[in-house]
């Protein structure tokens, strides 16, 4: 990983390692959009066109300034918009060969207000609400957890809405708190895996089990201020 101003040149690494390197830079750097997971590689994210949550950015591939790619003849080639924009578009969707090196555009570290809310589906799922959140938030995720209410009643069925907005305010959680929350979440995910295995064998328990997981691990409204990578990689 090599850093030069707002340019990051890397050989394929895990996103977690890249985030750590960018955070330790002086001054700290980051992406304004990325995938939720950090256990994936940069070249894998780019070659599959994996998306981020940012409203104005379709996927992480758009952050790539140049590629070095090994083609089927064993030769190393460089691609960029300056060299050939058409070939660069093909490189962004992994049509030309094996990605050897990537050059990303990064930016100074910033903080985000992360808000989790759980509105009733019947109240929230309207054009004016969706339009407002899309236009006023930097990033947004709208998720649906099956069987989140007992009895599958339409009137109290809920959505999980995560919104993100840039802010100049200081973070409200230390790195120690963020790491502790991540460790607790990992434990919860492993516990959930055992329940999913049980549900596969006893499908009649699915409504009860998924409702239990939702209320124990998800259904908690909160608002906090985090550094961008901590907010984006929330699980």
From TrEMBL:
<dbReference type="GO" id="GO:0050660">
    <property type="term" value="F:flavin adenine dinucleotide binding"/>
</dbReference>
<dbReference type="GO" id="GO:0016899">
    <property type="term" value="F:oxidoreductase activity, acting on the CH-OH group of donors, oxygen as acceptor"/>
</dbReference>
<dbReference type="InterPro" id="IPR036318">
    <property type="entry name" value="FAD-bd_PCMH-like_sf"/>
</dbReference>
<dbReference type="InterPro" id="IPR010031">
    <property type="entry name" value="FAD_lactone_oxidase-like"/>
</dbReference>
<protein>
    <submittedName>
        <fullName>1990_t:CDS:1</fullName>
    </submittedName>
</protein>
<dbReference type="InterPro" id="IPR016169">
    <property type="entry name" value="FAD-bd_PCMH_sub2"/>
</dbReference>
């Amino acid at each position: 990983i090599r850093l030069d101003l707002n340019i990051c040149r890397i050989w394929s690494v895990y996103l977690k390692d890249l985030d750590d390197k960018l955070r330790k830079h002086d001054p700290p750097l980051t992406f304004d959009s990325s995938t939720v997971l950090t256990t994936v590689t940069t070249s894998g994210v780019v070659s599959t066109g994996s998306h981020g949550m940012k409203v104005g950015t379709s996927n992480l591939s758009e952050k790539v300034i140049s590629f070095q790619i090994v083609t089927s003849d064993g030769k190393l080639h460089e691609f960029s918009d300056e060299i050939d924009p058409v070939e660069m578009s093909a490189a962004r969707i992994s049509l030309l060969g094996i990605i050897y090196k990537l050059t990303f555009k990064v930016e100074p570290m910033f903080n985000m207000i992360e808000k989790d809310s759980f509105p009733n589906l019947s109240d929230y799922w309207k054009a004016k609400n969706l339009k407002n959140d899309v236009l006023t938030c930097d990033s947004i995720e709208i998720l649906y957890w099956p069987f989140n209410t007992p009895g599958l009643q339409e009137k109290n069925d809920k959505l999980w809405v995560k919104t993100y907005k840039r802010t100049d305010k200081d973070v409200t959680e230390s790195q120690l708190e963020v790491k502790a929350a991540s460790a607790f979440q990992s434990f919860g995910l492993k516990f959930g895996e055992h329940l999913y295995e049980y549900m596969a064998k006893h499908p009649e328990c699915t409504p009860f089990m998924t409702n239990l997981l939702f209320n124990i691990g998800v259904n908690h409204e909160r608002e906090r201020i985090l550094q961008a990578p901590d907010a984006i990689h929330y699980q």
